[in-house]
Amino acid sequence: MKHLSLLLLCCSVLCCSTAGYSHELPEGAVPLAKSEQCAACHPTIYKEWQESFHAKSSALKDPAHGAVHQAFVKAMEKKGKKGNYHCANCHAPMADNIKELMTGAAELDSNNWTHAEGTGCTFCHRIESIVEKKLFNQYRLNKDGSFHTNKPAKANLPHKTGQSALFAVGKVCMGCHSHKMNGKDVPICLMKDEAQGSNCLECHMPQVKGAAAIGAKGTTHRSHKMPGGHDIEMLKKAATLDAEVTSKGKERNLVVTVKNIIKHTFPSTNPMRIAFVKVVAKDKNGKKVWENFKESPMEDKQSFFFKAFKAGEKKGVPSWAADGIAFDTRLKAGETRQLSYPLADSAISQVDVMLIYRLFPSKAIKGFAIPEDGVNEKAYLVAKKSLTL
To answer: For labeling, which of 11, 22, 264, 369 is most exposed (least CB within 10 Å)?
Structure first.
């Protein structure tokens, strides 16, 4: 897998035609506005949104995303092609020139707030419908500027409101989180198929204490932090880990059980996300005797939960060049998987088993100059079991 680092180059970038692709905002529509305008009446929700990765989705706000985007642009330039910010469809959906960004006719501008805003309040809450397309979906936004929710307040408000069934069970999320296909119909992510009847809101926008707005009668609201793989508490709710040692005569065997307890794949969505099991066996003095891998979790294929792409016989290609999936060892929704390890060394008296999650493999961190900021390179400990023999 010497080409693994190439695989990780894509993140959400697909090399395919972008002609005609942009969210639909009717002619003469009320323009989108900065999210900070919502803070006066919705201070709690605005603060939550600021902490979310929706607020940091643009390559101008997320250094990791920015680094991968620049790597993609350079890769295209080496081929004599002009790079584009195809990711704008979901990462900068409020851009006032989104079509030009996606085709490469324009570049991100840090002085343009619509490029840096990320996925803001006035974008999501003006969604009227989802425009389903083959490669990925888009949204159709309303013309009058009214803000849609599942149950809009009936009191006098400083803005128009509207009711939308899309917000009831999280269907509104599927404009961006449904699927992404490359130009050869290879699924980069396929949440619409990987999710098993799940309601995104249950986990990613749970009910929390506090009124949705100043003066509102309600005592709870849906959190707009929208946690995911960057949140250790969310990760701990995604999978369980168990381990036991079985004996047959003088032979001892470690059996590790990992179960995905969420309603979609683990890890999910972003091709860079990985999870793996690390096993360390020690003697009675605490000295390491054996481990299931030394440098890369790929040394132990059964413990590695990841998705990789291929082109012909070549494995580990970037997603835009892929003509198929090389392998997909991620845990499906509700799946239980058992790993088995012989404990041949009689000196082994203790075994530590850990389920670890990473946003980016170490090769991606190095290959694309992704900043090591205490988050991007972090190994999140999802679960741990220690056994004494």
So the answer is: 369
